[in-house]
Fold:
Amino acid sequence: MKNLYIMGSADSGKTAMAVGLALKFKQEGRKVAYFKPVGTSAAAGKADEDAILMKELLTMEASLEVIVPTMASPFYLSRGNRSAEMLETIKKAYQEVSRNTDLVIIDSAIFPYIMGTIGLDAPSLALELNASALYLINAKNDYSLDQVIFFNQYIQYKGVPVLGNIFTHVPRPIQAKIEGVYKPLLDNLGFRTLGIVPKVRELSAPSVAQVYELLGGELLTGEQNLDLLVEDIMVGAMTIESALGYMRRSNNKIFIIGGDRADMALAALETSTSAIILTGGLYPDVKVISRAIEKGVPVLLVHYDTYTAIEKLSELSGRITANNKESISKAVENAERYCDWKGILNTLCIE
Amino acid sequence: MPDLTPFFNVRSVAIIGASNKPGKIGNVIVKNVIESGFAGKIFPINPKETVIEGLTCYSSVSQAPDKIDLAVICVPAKFCPDVMDECGKTGTKYAVVITAGFKEVGPEGLELEKKLLFICKKYGIYMVGPNCVGIMDTHIPLNTSFAAGFPLKGDIAFISQSGAMLVSIMDWSRSIGLGFSRVISLGNKADLNEADFIAALADDPLTKVILCYIEDVHNGRYFLDVASQAAKKKPVIVLKSGTSQAGAQAASSHTGALAGNDLAYETAFTHAGILRAHTMTELFDLATCFSYQPLPKGDRVAIVTNAGGPGIVASDAIENAGLTMARFEKDTLDALRANLPAVANIYNPVDVIGDAGADRYAFALEAVIKDPHVDSAVVLVCPTTVTDPVSIALKIIELHEKYPDKPILTAYMGGVALAEGVKILNQAKIPVFTFPESAIQSIAGMVNYVRRADTLVGGEEILFDDINPNKVKAVFYDVIRDRRSVLLGSEAAAVAEAYGISTAPVRLAISPDEAVALAESTGYPVVLKVASPKIMHKTDVGGVKIGLNSAEEVRNGFIEIMENVQRYLPDVVPYGIEVSKMMPKGIELIVGMTRDMQFGPLIAFGLGGIYVNLLKDVSFRLAKGITHTEIAAMIEETKASTLLRGYRGDKPADMMSIIDMVARAAKLILDFEEISELDINPVFAYPDGYSALDIKITIKL
Structure:
């Protein structure tokens, strides 16, 4: 079997892992292809971003429509049950992508259960495409382990071999707990832990450009600094004296504040800030803009309220693009240093 | 430090942008220069004119027939850089830029201002402004402003960040006969700022007192150095606006100043010996008193009044202001008793009663003013039918001349009936107020200045030979590598220990088993605290367990804390749990700091525990140059000091060790600029030493 199906929830670092493993295997002299049977697009008519990235990284000849043959919109059922037709398309596309390759890395939709209603969820497709599953988990607490085991067992029950699990975006404080508690528990149930990948900002932190894309609004200054990374979000809703304590604790933050609070915006600019989001459509005092220009911090004005801005930001997560060399090399480094990539490769090639 | 004395000795002035059109600023300034009686050469510059206000006009600076001492520039903003460049080429070294349209209007204006400043630096030109009203000098005399009035000659210098404030004050000052020496409108402070002028005015023999109205300080450290030097020579009185939150916001949208924390200003001003006025009235009351009267030698005030009520009001004000009611010596009392009516009060406040004429006032005032136990006197006058305000005023003036070394202030409590007397007193430079409180406040200001001047001798800098900065660097290195700003409790304790601050031993456990092992080795009872840089107030999220006495309790405590934190803050992943020895109860203190963007680190001391924010019993000092005496004084300012001395039969705490600890904390924050916050709360003070229980440190990445 030469097919590796990477599964996991949104924000579990599937793309980063696909990039890392694919490039690593390529370095090892393998011909690697990338396939994403069910894609999602940021906007109607736009291609799946992961597909664009991987096509470029692996210099694949197949067209984007072949690499991502179907799309699952949140209203896909309105188009009727096209299960058989879609499966046919997927299989055909897979044939084309996998031709003349040693390995195919298959990426799942944002959640493994998507299109389960019509039998095209990730485990079902893994079975159809004869792939082994690698389930990724971004562990937050003990419930996360429950989730891994639940999915592992479901995948096995479906008849798909589970290669193992990789813990991703692991904050340093819980590395020891994963090693000492979670890994033995998984071992006891017969699941291999194939990697514990520490959290790195290059892969987990979104850029100001992404924030801008997500929130819309007017960029008042800082066009040239949109590549700054966002590691924290802070809302300014207190007096300067109280807020300074919080501001100093938070690094590379986006700071959200009403446009009329010049004092707070100026204070935030004196601390580590990647961008200032002004809400309520209130244009700031010129002094804020002047200082932001001096500091090179983008200022974004949105025409809705602070709560809405925060709601929208909850969808924010890190994303890799082909021209971001730093994050790509981090992805490879993670696969190399923290994952049992040899084990994965051997299992795939022997079986 | 720039030499600004040439500003006070101008012999030739060019007005670039001079105009013939009445009402234009370029015209007003030329007129003002002429009308101020300026005896030097005046060169109006305007390529389109030949004569302005009867003076030959030149097409450019280079065409002026003589060297230009001072260039006053009022051409439109976009032409300013070229004009400045020409000034530079012709050797002019001092300039005032009146023109607005720079930093205050936004990014383009800021660019233009930078360009202008660059040209000034290139040629070594000292520039006032831009966006200012100009400067006035009653001694040259020279008025380069576009203000409506020119002040009277006097010995008060006034530096103002607000042009409008300056113009209003100048107009008002004439109505009460208050005179000024030099008046400077700072504008955007692109080049010269308040500190430069304070330094220059400190050495100006024609200035007795320096007044400042500022919205922000340009460079805190420099300002402090300069102001403390100046305050040793003459009073520096500052009205810093933007004290309230609304004020701070207004200030920030007014001149682009990030209005610093008001507390920092208060502390810094005290440190430098600057008198802080909180209202415009206070600013000018103080200015008048310093300008008109000698400095009091002490805080003992005598009151002479013709009515009981005002005497009591004045006595209350004296007590509230921290001054002392003078107690007369026997000779004074005997004289008063012998010469005043029997119903009069001969003790302070001396009541000469309602039917007192000028002679009785004069007798009483002379009796108290020559009493060696009196440092200053306040005369209160109420308008009764027999009161003769003019004669009383003349007597006071006479006595002030006879006893010129003790300040005499007056409160003429009335309006129409007393107006003539008020006028005479003003002319004779006897400060006259309507109500006694302002008079007393002014004396308090003068006394504070004298007291502060006495203590500004500067104590010994504190040196330590047992601190280990490398240990601190090592801890910070690890924290920064972890991309954190906040130190864990165990790391913060290590930092404090490196600086000789004794802490309760604290270790980090990442599993219940480890916590138990640590507890066993420390010895019970222990305290468990969640360790996470994301959590500011641990108690609020159920992140603290105290008084745990067994392995079982520690194990459960560990798990419960983790569960609590998960419930309150689901996205926070704690680093583990810190296990520390439970220390015996002592007096709870807090030692902390805040780093002000302008003035650098401030060290705080006060009553600690969880009620810090409620009780606010905290005093502050600038960490730089702090002395043992000053630490003792800051402790003394708090209520905590009463507890430390032993309250209601408690044993007194080890004060020396606490002073030493504050000094060490101050040293730590001075040595490491990257520390943006330090909070040691609580510190338990014991009869023999102390223990720092919880230390929070935040650093800048």
Remarks:
- Chain A has a mean pLDDT of 88.
- Chain A touches chain B at residues 140-141, 171-174, 176-177, 180-181, 201, 221, 231, 239-241, 244-246, 248-251, 261-263, 266-267, 270, 272, 285-287, 289-291, 293-294 (CB under 8 Å).
